[in-house]
Amino acid sequence: QVQLVESGGGLVQAGGSLRLSCVVSGYTGDIDIDSMGWHRQAPGKQRELVAGIGHDGSTNYLDAVKGRITISRDNARNTVFLQMYNLKAEDTAVYYCMLSDFPQEYWGQGTQVTVSA
Predict the structure, then answer these.
(1) Peptide bond into 43 cis (omega under 30)
(2) pLDDT at 29
(3) Once rounded to an integer, what is the mean pLDDT over residues 23-47?
(4) How many Å apart are CA 102 and CA 82, to the nearest integer?
(5) What is the structure's pLDDT at 102?
(6) Rounded distance, CA 33 to CA 37, Å?
(7) How far apart, in whole angstroms, are the C-alpha atoms of residue 86 and residue 15?
(8) What distance lies between CA 52 and its chain's CA centroid?
(9) In which band, very low, low, confident or very high, does the pLDDT at 61 lie, cut at 50, 70 and 90?
(10) What is the pLDDT of residue 31?
(11) Do 16 and 87 contact (CB within 8 A), yes or no?
């Protein structure tokens, strides 16, 4: 059974930083060739892609977080990271990790990030 477990969320003041981690276990595919990403969902809003990283290390970011968030991966440890700086109140959401093995997608349970103004 594939599991994605996120960690690193919490309560932080505006302007602060957090580093989220997502560890993948039970996956029998080749994670080196899969894309991974972080999505978020705020109360009353749709889930949105925050950052994605391809098998070749290429990245893409939501415009609202560019320059403040960096996604990276460590394939040897089956882990993807999301480093967040200068957090804003509007970054408050549940953050979900996703592994894409097209057409299959695997999702974590999410970790709450709350930014106080």
Answers:
(1) no
(2) 82
(3) 92
(4) 22
(5) 87
(6) 13
(7) 4
(8) 8
(9) very high
(10) 83
(11) yes
